[in-house]
Design goal:
Elements: H1 18-27, H2 33-47, E1 54-58, H3 65-79, H4 81-86, E2 93-97, H5 108-118, H6 146-164, E3 169-173, H7 187-201, E4 204-209, H8 215-219, H9 221-224, E5 227-231, H10 240-255, H11 269-276, H12 280-296, H13 304-308, H14 314-331, H15 336-352
Parallel strand pairs: 1-4, 1-5, 2-3, 3-4
Helix pairs in contact: 1-12, 2-3, 5-6, 6-7, 10-11, 10-12, 11-12
The structure holds adenosine-5'-diphosphate and magnesium ion (MG).
Organism: Azospira oryzae (strain ATCC BAA-33 / DSM 13638 / PS) (Dechlorosoma suillum)
Protein name: ATPase
Pfam families: AAA_22
């Protein structure tokens, strides 16, 4: 253990069970530069009074987006503390996950039900439009598209509920699931539903998800006008500042490993950088596995050689990195020449008419 970086975990943990020690490490949060910076930018986008109504936080898997969304939630709760104290019925900020569709398209009905439950609505399962009278008599007509009407009713109730509960910010994590549809034509409906939610209830929606969310920017001009994108990137080995920030994060994580002797992993920082793809999530999961096995084997510490055994396979890393790089490229803006080319095309089409 070096004096410059004393251990951070409560020392009693060393006498605790393997499970408790590993859980402590899994739960511990450190401050790391990209997350801090992204938090500041997301908060500023949310606050800008007459600004966009949709803030999209995008980044690769494992960057720490879900953790960030909970930090945003906590920061906003703090911000609205007075409002909550004055009006206990108010829900100024809400957070929920967009659940991955079960085979087909994203399930709005389920989403609205969970949103209403978050707001304390206990009658969500009873919300549906009254069937037309002839549907009440067997065999008289084709069945009503009940699913659709129920979703519509839930949508309207959700929008009203957000208004009455004075909700100002709605955070949707794993929001790329909203865009998962079995028919590409349905995407437009997904955009409409988001637009309706923000306009009708006047909330700022924070969509947190992978780069797949960029489809909104690329395909819905109407939502683009109302959105701002906040990038939460991985650490990039080619950037000097990122190397330093990754090193700091690795040291902070080392200090949280409840072992009698603090591992000196940062001596091999490049190796850890490479084998985690610059992702704090991948790094932390990896170190958790090392910790568990080190404790089970009765070791007092572990080193990079030991960690090798528990690292992700290179093939898995390549898949993750490919996806991240593809997202980073998609995020790059088009050139002004491309804008000019589109204008030129428009002029030509007009002349040919
Ligand atoms: N600031 C942080 N400090 C420590 N661990 C973190 C931090 N942010 C994220 N993690 C860990 O990294 C892993 C992935 O984080 P998560 O927020 O789920 O990422 P994402 O949503 O981008 O996939 C989780 O195990 C989480 O606990
Ligand atoms: Mg996540």
């Amino acid at each position: 253990m070096t004096n410059a970086h004393p251990q951070r975990f409560p020392v009693q943990l060393l006498g605790s069970t393997t499970e408790n020690r590993v859980q402590y490490f899994r739960d511990c949060l450190i401050e790391h530069a990209n997350q801090q910076e992204c938090l500041a930018r997301a908060m500023s986008a949310i606050y800008s009074a007459c600004g966009p109504r949709i803030v999209q936080v995008v980044g690769p898997t494992g960057a720490g987006k879900s953790t960030l969304s909970r930090k945003i939630y906590q920061a906003l709760l703090e911000q609205y503390r007075d409002l909550i104290n004055m009006d206990p019925g108010a829900v100024p900020v809400a957070i929920l996950d967009a659940i991955a569709p079960n085979g087909s398209s994203f399930n709005w009905k389920d989403f609205y039900i969970r949103l209403l439950e978050k707001h304390g609505d206990i009658l969500t399962n009873r919300k549906m439009l009254v069937p037309r009278q002839h549907d009440l008599f067997e065999g008289l007509s084709a069945p009503l598209p009940l699913e659709r009407t129920t979703t519509e009713a839930l949508r309207r109730t959700s929008e009203k509920c957000l208004k009455y509960r004075k909700t100002k910010v709605l955070i949707i994590d794993e929001a790329h699931h909203v865009l998962m549809v079995n028919d590409p034509k349905r995407l437009e409906f997904q955009f409409e539903a988001l637009k309706s939610l923000t306009i009708e209830s006047n909330v700022v929606i924070v969509l947190v998800g992978t780069y797949k969310l960029l489809a909104i920017r690329d395909q819905s001009g109407q939502l683009v006008r109302r959105s701002e994108i906040v990038h939460f990137p991985r650490y990039n080995l080619r950037q000097k500042e990122d190397c330093q920030n990754f090193l700091n994060a690795l040291i902070e994580l080392e200090r949280q490993l409840p072992l009698p002797v603090m591992p000196n992993l940062h001596a091999k920082v490049r190796y850890f950088f490479l084998k985690s793809g610059g992702s704090i999530g991948i790094l932390k999961d990896w170190l958790s596995r090392c910790l568990e096995h080190a404790i089970l084997r009765g070791m007092r510490t572990f080193d990079a050689k030991f960690a090798e055994e528990f690292a992700l396979s290179n093939k898995s890393l390549i898949t993750i990195l490919d996806e991240a790089i593809e997202g980073e490229i998609a995020l790059e803006d088009a050139s002004l020449d491309e804008v000019k080319a589109v204008n030129q095309r428009a002029i030509l089409t007009t002349c040919q008419r």
